[in-house]
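WARN no homologs supplied; continuing
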Amino acid sequence: MTTQVEALSALVATARGARPQSLASREAEEVLNITLAVLVELAVANDRIDRVERLVAEVSGRSVEDLRDIRYDGEVALERQAATDALLTRALRIMLDPRAQAGG
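OK structure emitted
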């Protein structure tokens, strides 16, 4: 089974041609791309978290604060780490793109 990180890394590795660039500095372009990717990820995550927390709190009769204090270990912790790794790969994909080095 291919993980999200492996799939995205494979997709980026197959990129061809010069990477489009709108700023004079490649480094500034990379920082902008990373920042925008993180902003999109954060907006989506915040919306999903808010909806889930409200629903679970309503259904369980617990407060949102109680839900936020729950800690996990074992398989759940590993799954959460894999999700974090995938997030970082998506956000930092510009650093993995071979076109950035080739077009430098």
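The helical segments are 4-13, 26-60, 64-68, 74-91, 93-96, 98-103.
OK
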